[in-house]
Amino acid sequence: MTRDRILAWAALAATLVIWASFLVSTRAAVATALGPIEIGLMRFAPAAILFAPVLFRRGPIPAGATWRDATVFALCGGVAFVFLLASGMRYAPVADAGVFAPAMLPLWVALIARFALGERIGGVQAVGLAFLVAGGLAVGGWGAMTAGAPGAWRGHVLFACASLNWAIYTVAFRRSRLAALPAAAMLAFWAAAGFLVLAGLFGTHFGAVPVRRWSPRPCCKACCRGS
After folding, report:
1. Mind listing the pLDDT tens digit for each residue in 114-155?
2. CA distance 215 to 41
3. Rounded distance between C-alpha atoms, residue 168 and residue 187, angstroms
4. What pLDDT, in 10s, does the model give residues 89-116?
5. Cα–Cα distance between 223 and 217 in angstroms, integer?
6. Would residue 71 be called left, alpha or beta, if left means φ above 0 and alpha means ψ between -120 and 50 degrees?
7. Contact by Cβ (8 Å): 85, 26
8. What is the secondary structure of 75-122 as a DSSP string?
9. How far is residue 150 CA from its own chain's centroid?
10. How far apart are CA 119 and CA 98, in angstroms?
11. Phi-psi domain of 63 (left: phi exceeds 0; alpha: psi -120 through 50; beta: other)
């Protein structure tokens, strides 16, 4: 196996761990008094600070990007995505979020890329997408009716919409042809700015969460109760 393939598989594994960790931590946050604004600030504000060197060097809208790119990144990859995902966690368990958010992402990306970029869907890819649809229907249909919590379908719809927004961001990133670092920095900066504006308008509830609830053990318990 070549070095590039090893790095690719390692990046894939890291991505899966990041996605799973974000879903679990979001569910734990929703189980407290925290809402989408607080979750968005915790997700993007630290990232914007860490990307400060890139922002200083490339700017909040790097060369090759436009205001439209920044808006789509901040809205679809940031504000709308977090709001929809966190809201869905109030109705459906985190395991279902894993099916309807990251797992359904390839379907949305393929469909959007087909119409927005003219990319064709190959035979093997079509089979894989069909399995994704079947899995989503099994969890959102039969699974929800036989073993799901009352009203879980609302969470499934919100998860699917969150995944759709992330897919729009993914295709927009592809169209922008930005490198990974400036694109990530632009997303973090403008999404953090959006959540800061919302926090200024509607306030936050960080103070409503007791300090002891911020430790790992209570967070894990809160997450497991809602999974």
Report:
1. 887 788 888 888 888 888 778 777 766 555 555 566 778 888
2. 19
3. 13
4. 888 888 888 878 877 888 888 888 888 7
5. 10
6. alpha
7. yes
8. IIIIIHHHHHHHHHTTTS-HHHHHHHTTTTHHHHHHHHHHHHT-----
9. 24
10. 26
11. beta
Residue whose structure tokens are 């379907």 = 107
Provide the token pair at 152: 């879980």
162 and 85 in contact (C-beta within 8 Å)?
yes
Q: Residue 15 to residues 5, 22, 102, 144: CA-CA distances in angstroms?
A: 15, 11, 10, 27
Query: Among positive and negative, which fits the CA dihedral 171, 175, 176, 179?
Result: positive
Helix 3-30 vs helix 216-225: angle between axes, to the nearest 10 degrees? 80
Q: Shortest CA distance to 93 belongs to which of 129, 131, 143, 43?
A: 143
What interhelical angle do 3-30 and 80-88 show, nearest 10?
A: 60
Size of the chain, expressed as the number of residues it contains: 227
Looking at residue 78, its amino acid is G
Structure tokens at 93: 């368990």
Distance (Å, whole) CA 83 – CA 172: 20
Q: Looking at the whole model, is its pTM more than 0.70?
A: yes
Whether 55 and 48 have beta carbons less than 8 Å apart is answered as yes
Q: Give the tokens for residue 164.
A: 């759709």
User: Which amino acid is it at 110?
Assistant: A
Phi, psi of 174 (to 5 degrees): -65, -45
20, with CB counted inside 10 A (0-12, 13-18, 19+), is middle
Counting Cα atoms < 13 Å in the Cβ hemisphere of 179 gives 6
31's tokens: 């189980």
